[in-house]
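Archive transcription. Copying these from loose printouts into the bound notebook so they stop getting lost. Printout 1 of 2:
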Amino acid sequence: GYITTPADYIIEQGKHSDGWEYIKWNGGRIELWCDKSIIFPEPTNMGNYLWRSIYSLDMSSKLKSIISGTCCVQYSGMLPTFSRHSTILTMGEIVVATSKSFTSFTTIVPIYIIGKWK
């Protein structure tokens, strides 16, 4: 027999003091997840019956760039989506876009992010 080296492997895993759990891979990938209490501000009218509320999530202390993310939650018929900011690669944005206005609300959002730590 012979010994093979895995293509990639976990070099660290744990939990930050702010609740984010993580796994760091030797190749540079990082996975982070957390149940986060988020306050969505009152939305802005974007015209054509579209209202938008954005919560910004600064991940710069935990990674060098976000590749992708999810926030699988439903609140009062609204489905927030996760995306990376267009120019700030360490900033995640959780957006609610809907056809009706609403007041500011707070909810627990399960978030999963995959990115690069090096």
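Printout 2 of 2:
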Amino acid sequence: MANTITFIVCVIVTAFLLLSIALAGPHLLLPATAMIVTVWIGGLCIYVADGMLNSRDKIEKDWEAKHPD
């Protein structure tokens, strides 16, 4: 679920930044492009972290199933 929300938020923020480029003119092109790249890199980091946490939970469940105390 976090990945879906992250993707939707990245798209919305990118749309706002593209709209700001369109309304403010080309002098905003470089900063807005840098912000778009930053947003998508942050989304990728959240995607990777969520995948790692899900993998860890799966490994812990498998460990608990194999080693009941």
